[in-house]
Amino acid sequence: MTKIQFADRADRKTVETGDAFAPKFDDQGLIPVVTTCATTGRVLMQAWMNAEAIERTIETGEAHYFSRSRQELWHKGATSGEFQLVKEFRTDCDQDALWLVVEQKGGKCCHVGHPSCFYRSITVNIPVSDTEPPKLNTDD
Amino acid sequence: MTKIQFADRADRKTVETGDAFAPKFDDQGLIPVVTTCATTGRVLMQAWMNAEAIERTIETGEAHYFSRSRQELWHKGATSGEFQLVKEFRTDCDQDALWLVVEQKGGKCCHVGHPSCFYRSITVNIPVSDTEPPKLNTDD
């Protein structure tokens, strides 16, 4: 049961330039969130929040998400100890995305064991092949 | 008409740790992408790509997205001149999100006139109100 109240989204200008939080949720009740590291500036992960995750993040200052695979509130670090302490919590112009800047406890955000989930890159400025997928380079 | 080929997603371990690009698209054929500034490290915007946008981004080295509001390929900067030159293009462990590091031409990513779309913050570590929405602070 959440108590958080959000502003109305009826007026586009107010949403884009006003001072009231009016997030846009998709038809699953979710909004995408990108999480970056306060120390390195790197993107650590991309995840999703519902209203409850937003409420818990604001009230505790620790990152909470909604796990789509488990369909439940996900307090990051609750099982691993790798909590994320929120340094900044931001929304974008049309309020359909969120950005968390965090201190990542333990230093490894990714369950595969890397500091960032985004540990592989794709080469650009090359023709794509019609027979082979682009190759990923591990370079973290 | 796209020619890009993606790898199969049947094997979770290969998706999470392998070297073949196997992006996961949602039921609209889209994948979320976060774009950060190569100079400041800030998150500039959050958007979406389809297969064609990925192909055009790889081949040209300039950010292409899929506009959900216009339902068409969106070459960022094509009308404004504010192109995004791709410095890094990354995917995450389960390959359901992308990260672009760009040089933002013109310096203003956001259509409202700010350098970043995320120009407003939400205060954390406070109780949420059950009558008023959280207040946004403009601080870019």
UniProtKB/TrEMBL annotation, chains A, B:
Its EC number is 3.5.4.19. It comes from the Bacteria. Residues 45-119 form the Phosphoribosyl-AMP cyclohydrolase domain. GO terms for molecular function: phosphoribosyl-AMP cyclohydrolase activity. It catalyses: 1-(5-phospho-beta-D-ribosyl)-5'-AMP + H2O = 1-(5-phospho-beta-D-ribosyl)-5-[(5-phospho-beta-D-ribosylamino)methylideneamino]imidazole-4-carboxamide. Keywords: Amino-acid biosynthesis, Cytoplasm, Histidine biosynthesis, Hydrolase, Magnesium, Metal-binding, Zinc. Zn(2+) binds at residues 93, 110, 117. InterPro entries: PRA-CH (IPR026660), PRib_AMP_CycHydrolase_dom (IPR002496), PRib_AMP_CycHydrolase_sf (IPR038019). Mg(2+) binds at residues 92, 94, 96. Its cofactor is Zn(2+); Mg(2+). Pfam families: PRA-CH (PF01502). It is found in: Cytoplasm. It is an enzyme of class 3 (hydrolase). The keyword Amino-acid biosynthesis applies. Its main location: cytoplasm. Pathway: Amino-acid biosynthesis; L-histidine biosynthesis; L-histidine from 5-phospho-alpha-D-ribose 1-diphosphate: step 3/9. Coiled coil: none annotated. Binds 1 zinc ion per subunit. Belongs to the PRA-CH family. Homodimer. Catalyzes the hydrolysis of the adenine ring of phosphoribosyl-AMP. This is Phosphoribosyl-AMP cyclohydrolase. It comes from Kordiimonas lipolytica. The lineage of its organism: Bacteria, Pseudomonadati, Pseudomonadota, Alphaproteobacteria, Kordiimonadales.
